[in-house]
Input
Amino acid sequence: MKKLKKSVLAVVSCLTMSVSVSCFANSDLTTDVEKESYSIGASFGHHISSQIYGQTQLGAEVNMDVLVGGLLDALKDETKMSKEDIVTYLNQRAETLNAAKQVKLDALTAKNLAAGEAFMAENRKNSDVKQTESGLQYEVLTMGEGKMPQGNDVVTVHYKGSLIDGTEFDSTYERNEPNRFSLVTVIEGWQEGLALMPEGSKFKLTIPSALAYGDRVVGMIQPHSTLVFEVELVKVEEPGENSHGMGLSGMGMGGMMGGMMGANPHK
Output
């Protein structure tokens, strides 16, 4: 963040020296036009600083003096490069940034896969933990006596999900409201785990990334993350039973479908 602040200060300093002093003679914003104009500039400045920070985090170099010069030239419609050349160099920059992102992603993937494998290997030492052929690990916390879900059944569950470092990313318990959805809509690890649970059961599921979100980023869940869920199966219903309420509890289907609002068992 210190680098970002320095970059922003550099932009401000350059602009201050480059723009007529009369523009800053009156620092008070009194009229709506002044406030609207300032807002446009501030919004544009925030966007630029965010772009600069993101690129420098990937190791890309930015010449601030030249950047500010290009900005001012564009405002005056006096750019030193043709529009075609500008597009060419922006595309070149994009290719460089994408390559840097891939290197960073590959390193993160390797790190998360190794951490997940080590965590599951240690978890297997617990005599209460069982592992299926797919690699799913489960521990019975409470064994219920009701019916077991299958196929397109609709389930109502309470759950909390955590990363392997214990960071909790979702919990119906905190919202004090269970979630209800069709079994076929959830990630493979949940489909398999819930199929082992009679109604009234509570299991702890440790799900390898291949049975969770794989290479996707979901909320705070990084690519190829192993996940831990405590799942309480409250109710099992056949398809069509009271389906009008499905998916409306908790975070709603927007979050449940793996959006950036949060992470949960849905695909």
